[in-house]
């Protein structure tokens, strides 16, 4: 199967990274390699370097194929979780880099491959793993979590209004027999929550919540951003694209914390902490143009935040 994914805000990402042709650039979520290819095209044949990371084997294969011969510079690829960015850079013998991109969430390839179980539009086993070497799947969440825990993830990760009703329906159904497929889960949700006119598919929020839980997407985000900033050179840029408010809030708050100077209590007449900011935030969050959203509806909720490294952590 071809790897289909339309990269989002490509020109904005290239601009945001303020590319140094002799620099090293890391894409922590390389997917099909669309962003990395665009970045690599601006790099010098001898001195520029790219590194693509993804936890999904399909992505690494597709990116390698799409990028290697399309850019002048050299580079490498690694099937890894970006939470291990520091170790990955060490493996490649790289200490500091000039730019880092995170384009969070799932690729269209993952959503549109029915057997991977990410989509409420196809009936498939409950899977939703980005990394298929991981043992823990959506089936484990749906069949093994107790009712309180299901309510919490549907509420916290899906912002689902009917969390309680859906969790109760799942617990009732699985007493009779385990819930094995996305189709069974969708049917259960459809029977449980009222269909609203503009709320999208009734299973959308639960599927987002289960996917986030299976892949531990939110819990690694802040520490991964901090690791990335740590490995940037002074003047290097970090660009992050998010697709929902839960991710965006973490990016915004982490940037804010890294950009903070003095952290003395407000009552102190003079600064005694000597705390220095590590980054400066570049502009406001950007969103895709109307033309891009028209051409790619999945870009609709994208938000790009950018920061530049200005100081080392003490
Ligand atoms: C939106 S897609 C990226 C698309 C890519 N920028 C392109 O231009 O084709 C997100 C990718 O990030 C990967 N991903 C998500 N979380 C990850 C993590 N913690 N570590 C590594 N890769 C991750 C997913 O497997 C997916 O391939």
Structure description:
By secondary structure, this protein is of the alpha/beta class. The protein folds into 2 domains: 10-105 and 218-309, Rossmann fold (3-Layer(aba) Sandwich), CATH 3.40.50; 113-215, Putative methyltransferase TM0872, insert domain (DNA polymerase, domain 1, Orthogonal Bundle), CATH 1.10.150.170. 39% of the residues lie in helices and 14% in strands. It has 13 helices and 7 strands. It has a 7-stranded mixed beta sheet with strand order 3-2-1-4-5-7-6, sandwiched between helices. The longest helix is centred in the middle third of the chain and has 14 residues, at 163-176. It starts with 9 loop residues before the first helix and ends in a 5-residue tail after the last strand. The model has no long low-confidence stretch (mean pLDDT 95). It binds S-adenosylmethionine. S-adenosylmethionine binds at residues 5, 7, 29-35, 53-56, 59, 81-83, 103, 105-107, 130, 220. S-adenosylmethionine (SAM) is lined by residues 5, 7, 29-35, 53-56, 59, 81-83, 103, 105-107, 130, 220.
Main β-sheet description: 7 strands, mixed
**Annotated CATH homologous superfamily of the largest domain:** Vaccinia Virus protein VP39
Bound molecules: S-adenosylmethionine
CATH architecture of the largest domain: 3-Layer(aba) Sandwich
The dominant shape is: globular
What is the averaged pLDDT score?
A: 95
Beta-strand fraction estimate: 5-15%
In which order are the strands of the major sheet placed?
Answer: 3-2-1-4-5-7-6
Topology-level CATH name of the largest domain? Rossmann fold
Query: How many alpha or pi helices?
Result: 13
The figure for the number of domains is 2
Q: What helical percentage do the residues reach?
A: 25-40%
CATH level-1 class of the largest domain: Alpha Beta
Distance between the termini: 48 Å
**DSSP E strands, number:** 7
